[in-house]
Task: inverse folding
């Protein structure tokens, strides 16, 4: 019998991306309970991931996986950072604000970071990992895949923005994919051991 894992997010893009990354783990993936809002009061990606995983696990009575991720831009002192999703109301507005903030900046280096946390049904954090991907913020959007800041985040080693990558490439070199590569083997062992699947 497959273990149930609730993705602690109301972001449809994140839930889809995790569904793709988790496909090989024989898990039943479910979104977090509708209407559940978890206030992200942490000052780091890891702290916010812990808050979300714990709250969603307790609310659902299932194991929960939470991600807190965001974009940190060197010229902006690490902003938008943990406020990446709240930088503006929509993806287009977030990108527009970012590009305005970087107007005239010579250093456009940036890093995407993903912190993942897994909580058991009691809300106890049982596993944490973090992954990152370095890149550069372009002056204009390129590509149509992905979500968020993907169209302006250019990864030099790939020669593409996140929004120009297919799911497999983004899954391999992206921040969430990097974190997930650390998480997956440990997650499978943890769920097999504790869920008796």
Result:
């Amino acid at each position: 019998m497959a273990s149930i894992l609730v993705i602690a997010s109301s972001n449809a893009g994140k839930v889809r991306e995790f569904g793709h990354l988790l496909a090989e783990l024989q898990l039943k993936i479910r979104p977090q309970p509708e209407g559940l809002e978890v206030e992200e009061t942490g000052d780091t990606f890891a702290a916010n991931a812990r808050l979300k995983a714990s709250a969603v696990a307790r609310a659902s009575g299932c194991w929960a996986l939470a991600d807190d991720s965001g974009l940190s831009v060197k010229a902006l002192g690490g902003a938008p950072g943990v406020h990446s999703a709240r930088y503006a109301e929509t993806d287009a507005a977030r990108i527009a604000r970012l590009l305005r903030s970087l107007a005239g900046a010579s250093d456009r280096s940036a890093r995407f970071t993903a912190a993942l946390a897994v909580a058991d049904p009691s809300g106890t954090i049982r596993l944490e990992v973090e992954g990152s991907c370095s890149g550069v913020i372009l002056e204009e959007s390129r590509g149509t895949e992905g979500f968020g800041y993907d169209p302006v985040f250019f990864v030099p080693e790939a020669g593409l923005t996140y929004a120009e990558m297919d799911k497999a490439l983004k899954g391999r070199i992206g921040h969430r994919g990097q974190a997930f590569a650390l998480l997956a083997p440990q997650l499978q062992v943890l769920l097999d051991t504790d869920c008796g699947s």
Observations:
- The mean pLDDT is 90.
- The chain has one domain: 3-195.
- Residues 3-195 form a domain with the Maf protein fold (CATH 3.90.950.10).
